[in-house]
Amino acid sequence: DAGVTQSPTHLIKTRGQQVTLRCSPKSGHDTVSWYQQALGQGPQFIFQYYEEEERQRGNFPDRFSGHQFPNYSSELNVNALLLGDSALYLCASSQTGVNQPQHFGDGTRLSIL
Amino acid sequence: RKEVEQDPGPFNVPEGATVAFNCTYSNSASQSFFWYRQDCRKEPKLLMSVYSSGNEDGRFTAQLNRASQYISLLIRDSKLSDSATYLCVARMDSNYQLIWGAGTKLIIKP
């Protein structure tokens, strides 16, 4: 039973570029959340997808957008990259329901030069 | 004030000792709580959910104090492999967003 998988594991981009990160949820999970984690900080919520729609969004600009596909997999897109976007991007999946814990993928480490 | 606050540590603890740390949350509407552990440059992994009555899983005990708005994690008979950062998470039932603390770093020394 595969857990949450993310790709790529590492990515280097330059300012102004665009990036797409991918996530496949754990089997049986239908909800995907994306987080940004800077060094020494806890994860910061970007948004959550359920039934192919953005269900909730954190305090991130519109440069951050996403998508969920019918098979529950998801993408995170970031446009006009800034140096401050350098971080570990984590995808977490869960079953729907407020008390369901989230399970994380290994993350994508994004570096902006 | 941060919504979820943790002492960043590090807590340096000898192997075999008992260690406890707390996490405070500011929103009294928070209903669900979790502890995750995160190893260096790895993803967070669920350690345990925290229930109102408190819960225990082997050497780990989590408790919730709603009156004082904190949750705690107790680790007994600590092992070298317990060295990690422990992240506290809170969520309001009306809100799907998880609010994370910045983590408490634990170092178990032989």
Overview of this structure, please?
The complex is a heterodimer of chains A (113) and B (110). By secondary structure, chain A is mostly beta strands. Helix content of chain A is 0%, strand content 50%. In chain A, strands 2, 4, 5, 6, 9, 10 and 11 form a seven-stranded mixed sheet that branches. In chain A, strands 1-3-8-7 form a four-stranded antiparallel sheet, with no helix packed on it. Chain B is 0% helix and 56% strand. In chain B, strand 4 (30-38) and strand 5 form a beta hairpin. The N and C termini of chain B lie far apart (36 Å). The mean pLDDT of chain B is 91. At the A-B interface, strand 4, strand 5 and strand 10 of A face strand 4, strand 5 and strand 10 of B.
Keywords:
heterodimer; A: 113 residues; mainly beta; four-stranded antiparallel sheet; 11 strands; globular; B: 110 residues; six-stranded mixed sheet; five-stranded antiparallel sheet
Brief write-up:
The complex is a heterodimer of chains A (113) and B (110). Chain A has no helices and eleven strands. With 113 residues, chain A is mostly beta strands.
What order do the helices and strands come in, and which of them pair?
The complex is a heterodimer of chains A (113) and B (110).
Chain A: E1 5-7, E2 10-13, E3 19-24, E4 31-37, E5 44-50, E6 53-57, E7 64-68, E8 74-78, E9 87-94, E10 103-104, E11 108-112
Parallel strand pairs in A: 2-11
Antiparallel strand pairs in A: 1-3, 3-8, 4-5, 4-9, 5-6, 7-8, 9-10, 9-11
Chain B: E1 4-6, E2 11-14, E3 19-25, E4 30-38, E5 44-50, E6 55-57, E7 60-65, E8 70-75, E9 84-92, E10 99-100, E11 104-109
Parallel strand pairs in B: 2-11
Antiparallel strand pairs in B: 1-3, 3-8, 4-5, 4-9, 6-7, 7-8, 9-10, 9-11
Structural class of chain A: mainly beta
Q: Report helical residue fraction of chain B.
A: under 10%
Mean pLDDT of chain B: 91
Succession of helices and strands of chain B: EEEEEEEEEEE
> Termini distance of chain A?
37 Å
CA-to-CA gap between the ends of chain B?
A: 36 Å
Gyration radius over CA of chain B:
13 Å
